[in-house]
Structure formats: C-alpha cells, structure tokens
Amino acid sequence: MASPDLTSTATPSEGVQRYSTYAKKFSISPITPDPVQWDKDWERCINSPDLEKSSVLLVAKKQGMRLEGLPAAAKEGHLTYARSAVVERQGHVHTFFTSFRAKGGFDTIWLLLEEPDRQKHILNGLQEACSHSFLGEDGRACCPELTVASMTKGRGNGFLRLLELFGATKKSAKEGVPFGLPSEWWERAVDDEAKPLSSDAEFVYELLTLGRNEFICMFILYVSRSTNHDVVNGAKSVDPIMKLMEDKGFANALAEVTQSVRETPIIRCENCEKSADELGSETRFMVCSACKKKLDFSLHYCSQACQRADWGRHKRNCGKQKVSKRLPGTAEDSTWATPSLPDFARDELNHFDAQGKDITTLGFGKSQFPRSAALQLQVSMLEADKPADYFLFTPARAAVRFVIDDPSAKMMFRFFRAEVMSSQEHMAIGPMVQYLIKGMAGSPGLSREIILKQISDEYGVDAEERLKRTEGNAPPGVTFMERIQKSVATMGPRLMNSMK
Ligand SMILES: [Zn+2]
Ligand SMILES: [Zn+2]
C-alpha cells in the first residue's frame, strides 16, 4: 500500500513487532497462541468509552504518520492509489459473493452451521483481515461493528445482514468510486477534531475511511473463504448440511425459510388482523386489559372500533382462557420467526403445538382449490380416522387403510400430505405417491397403476408424470421422502434452531 507508515502495521504474525496503536494502548495480547483471548481483548477495546470518544484521526497521527511537510501531491498520490485498491477489492468481493450466494446457497449453509463453527469462521475472518488489510490490526478499531457477538447474532443473521448492507451499498454506489458502509459512529469520529479540519486531518480521515472499508471487505472475503474451506474439504460440521442441500427443491424451500428469520414477533390487530406495517407506523395498539391482568396475555387491537367489533367473539374467553387467532407472525403463532413458511405448514405446526404434539392430529389446512368428489371422500375418511395416514381403494372399491408406525416417517408423510391436500400446486404429490407405492403396491388388490390412477383422480393431475419427475433426480431404492427424513433427522436440532 501507498503509505509506508500504515503498511508497517500489517501482518501481526509471530515474532514480528506489532505497530498497532490500540494493541499497545489496551494491552491486547498477540493473536497467537490464543486467538480467543486476542479477540476478547479487542472487544474490550472496542467497547471502551475511550474508543468511543477518541477520535480516530488523533490515533492515526499518534501512529507516527509524519505528515508535516508531506507535499500535497504526495498525499494525493497515496489517496489515488488507496482509492483504486479499495474499488478493486470491493468489486472483487461483490462479484464473488453474488455468485457464491446464488449458486452455492451460502446463506443456508451458514445458517445451518453449529454456533461454534460460525464463531470460528468469524474469528478467522477477523484475524485474516488484520493480516491482509492495510490498516493491520488497527482496522478493528475502525470497524467496531465487526465482533464475533454481533456477527453471530440471531443464529448467524448478523453476518448475513452485513452482506446485504454491503450488496445494497455497492448497488447504489457509482462505478469506479469506493463506497463506504454507513456508520453513524464513523461519521462522529471527526467531531472531536477542531473545525475546520486541517488538510492533514482531512487526508488521514479519508485514508482511514478507505482503510475501514477495505478491512470490511477483507473480513467478508475471509469469513467466506473459511466457510468454503470446510465445504470443499468435507469437514464433519458441514457434511449433514451438504446432504440436505443435494435435494435442490427442498434446499431452496429451506433457504427461503431460513433466510427470512424474524427476530421478534410482530403485533397484529385481533379483529382486522393488520400489522403496524400495514396500518402505518403511528398506530398505537391497545391490549385487552382484563386478559392482561388476569392471564398475563396480550390481545392487541388497533382501535376501539376493532375491539368493539371483536367483543362478540372474545367475551367468551376474556380473562378466562388464552384464546387468540394465532395470527401469522404474532407471539401466539409458534412459527412467528419464519415469515416465509408456507401457510399449510404454519397451520399444521400451530395445530400440532396446540394439540400437545400428537402426530395423529396433523391434518391438512383449508384447501385452496375445489376438491374433487374422490378427494372429498378421502378427506372425510381421514377425518373420521385420525391415526390413518391415507386410504387406498381396490378396483372393487374396498378401502385399504395405510398407517405409518414410525413417528418421524409419519410426521414427514403428513407434512407432504398437508401440502398436497391444501395447496393448489400439490408440489409434494410425486414424493407422496412414491412413498405410497413403495409401501402398498404389493398389497392384495393394489398395484402401482391402481395407486397412480387413484391419486390422479383425486387431484386432477398426472400422478405418473409427477412420480417420474421425483424418480428422475434420485438414486433408485430409497424414496425421496425417506431421504429427506434422514437428513432432517440428522439435522433436526439445527434446523429447528435455525427456524426459531
Ligand atoms: Zn383493527
Ligand atoms: Zn380479554
């Protein structure tokens, strides 16, 4: 890099004297042999009121930049060089990440990692950024928003939010000009300086702004490299995730759900069902005081008119029972953290929760399409016989009861079934019919053809074509449902965590 004084702070490796102003000032222990202690020391430094107040400009000056007498042309030379270097790195990281996130499903992999793995990658990213960026370790003092805690916040969403901010800022930036990630703290950094800024101070501030943004770039790059390294080398921690990602459709659906995790439940009016977003931010929600007082239960209304309108329904339970509509996204919705969960899954999970997690109560939501007579018959038979998972019919119209005993298989089947029976797309019809055929095609009076015809009649789709699609992208022998079930069983706790 152009400035000799700043480059000298780089590469804080073993045996090399560090030129980090902050490492000295805050007695920060060296990266090796204990990077965790090193990080703790840095976090202490970052959270110190000293850093909050001390202007970075002063620090940089203390670093020994001998600016007096440096000709204006030399300063401009340093800046020109630094600007083009930062533009190049920002462009590189942006290109890399855009394709990595789109093709490699980085976000899903990231969110499904175990917490200690994410911490490891963040720490690697910080260390590498310190070694490779031109501010060296002092880059950390310029980027207090990059900590292990903040980046792993919300099960890894902290880092994904940084990526989003980076991408959005890049998009709105001019081509060929370095962009700065917005930071109030950074804007304030010049406030302690005498105004107007001396030309030296202005020079240092711009150089440090470039250094700060280069550091963020390096950090993003090395966190992703660290993660990618595990993926490429088949590390144990990513193995179950990669198995899960092999099922493209499933992985995409999962990615969508895990990427839009909500941090806190939203509030909706129990009557008109609208949220603050839909009503406008000035809305002040009221809670039913009787329910709040007697049950410590919050039922929200956007207005007195809505509260009055809902009274006919609410009065039966008011102050007696915690009954709400479990509106999507509210605290009473057990899936509030995952706004992009499809409606059928939300309905089923809420129902499942309310019924004390009894699998046989996992049914099928309201259907979004007119049911055929054949499907109506299926529905009424299933409703009358909760433990049964499906009814198949022989050509002589004798009903054969299909019941799955294994709880995790039963649960998985019922999720597929709920999608097929409630959503118009019947996306899971291939996997469902494949599983039915595997279990039942050999039973007396049934066959592959008979089962396919029944399903085609019930849903008005070509079940055979759907089955072929399912079989097409999978090894023979094991059904799609069994494979998903196996991945989910291995990934279960992690999946649940990533969606909570
Ligand atoms: Zn309302
Ligand atoms: Zn009430």
Briefly characterize the structure.
By secondary structure, the protein is an all-alpha fold.
Can you describe what's shown?
The chain is mostly helical and 500 residues long. It folds into 3 domains: 4-246, no CATH class; 266-332, no CATH class; 333-499, no CATH class. It is 59% helix and 2% strand. It has 24 helices and 4 strands. The protein has helices at residues 4-7, 21-25, 35-46, 49-53, 56-62, 72-104, 106-112, 115-132, 139-142, 148-172, 184-188, 199-232, 239-246, 248-259, 276-279, 289-295, 304-314, 343-354, 373-384, 407-422, 429-440, 448-459, 463-472, 480-499; strands at residues 286-287, 300-301, 390-393, 399-402. The strands form 2 sheets. Strands 1-2 form a two-stranded antiparallel sheet. The longest helix is centred in the middle third of the chain and has 34 residues, at 199-232. 35% of the residues are buried. The structure holds zinc ion (2 copies). Residues 269, 271-272, 274, 301-303, 306 line the site of one zinc ion.
